[in-house]
Amino acid sequence: MDSEKVIKRDNEYVLHTYGRNPVVLEKGHGLYAEGPEGQKYLDFTSGIGVNSLGYCDLTWAEAVSEQAHKLQHTSNLYYTAPCGKLAKKLCKRTGMSKVFFGNSGAEANEGAIKAARKYSFDHYGKGRDTIITLVNSFHGRTIATLTATGQEVFHQYFGPFNDGFQYVPAGDINSLTELVDRHTCAILLELVQGEGGVMALDPEYVQAVRALCDEKDLILIVDEVQTGVGRTGTFLCCEHYNLKPDIVTLAKGLGGGLPIGAVLMNEKVAEGMGPGSHGSTFGGNPVVCAGANVVVDRMDAAFLSNVNERAVQLRTGLAKLPRVKSLSGIGLMVGIDFLEGIQAADVLAACREKGLLVLTAKTRLRLLPPLTLTAHDVDMALEILGEVLTGMQPKTVEETA
């Protein structure tokens, strides 16, 4: 079916809660995707950070296919080997004690919220249930995680929202300390605020938050839905900060393209989550876990070394391009801020026309390439971005209004 027919059918029957690009993708391999008419795109989005091994990695695809031919689903009423294997790998890799599997980042953050409140209830009783998050954060689109999200733009239309969430500006430890009271049970952070503009937190601030949590016996939750599983050049972004949280949430890149969420907990949190405290029909699905096992196995020292080398190459090249004001983020989670008059949405559209797929995050262009990218892939992306930015004229205030 050609692109026009695919788009027409989609527009007629799919609820359009996304502003989609006028692009149909039919197949892909590595960093390249193709459309029905043979259009070829270098993809520096990896499905918003999901396709960590690129499109249709052979080992990943074979593992998923083999498991699908054996057993596709059982529910959590029974044991399966892929689920337990993945749990062991994640706990050994991160130093956490237990893991709960769900289907998405939002679901993982829901699980983290429940686990933190359960710990507080068990140790301090009712009424100590407030979770503090950061202004500009993003934690999901369910009602609870939407409430946890510290951006007013997302708090429209869907009220009433849940009680039990408060917000402080990122980096302001004094405001955070003042907000903590007898009702506070946890602090929830993104170490790099992805949807908030790819903004990394200051290491001293993060350590101060950890110290505050230790002092007050608050649960420190780190949302690594976008930063985790090699995206920043270490398996967890926490490693950059020498941080040991009580709960870490993962999703996106963990499944390599299939839906998964994971809530990793230390022993003190995990011991309170007994039978009936949480659940997910599809969580720990053997087909998804088979793919995730391949992803985790791939994240060895050589793999992460390439991630870091390509990140340096990409960031060095981007800094030299015209119209680029500054860069943000860590590793292969890159935000690009442009000089006045250059709109990220315009850059995205121009890149798409030249065969490069990119993302935006607030006013910045955002790059989340597959972690398998090569030096040649980086050079190709830089070449296209260079052409686009060289030919782009800044817009006036009137034109951008």
Description of the molecule:
With 401 residues, the protein is an alpha/beta fold. The chain is 39% helix and 17% strand. It has a seven-stranded mixed β-sheet with strand order 4-12-11-10-7-5-6, sandwiched between helices. Strand 2 and strand 3 form a beta hairpin.
Q: Overall 3D geometry? A: globular
Structural class: alpha/beta
Query: Number of DSSP strands?
Result: 17
Q: In what range is the share of β-strand residues?
A: 15-25%
Overall pLDDT: 96
Strand order of the largest sheet: 4-12-11-10-7-5-6
Query: Helical percent range?
Result: 25-40%
Descriptive tags:
7-stranded mixed beta sheet, 4-stranded mixed beta sheet, 39% helix, 401 residues, globular, 14 helices
In short:
This protein has helices at 3-13, 46-49, 58-70, 81-94, 105-124, 143-148, 173-179, 203-216, 267-270, 286-298, 301-319, 344-353, 375-390, 397-400; strands at residues 27-29, 32-34, 40-43, 98-102, 130-134, 165-168, 184-189, 192-193, 199-200, 219-223, 247-250, 261-265, 324-330, 333-338, 356-357, 359-361, 364-367.
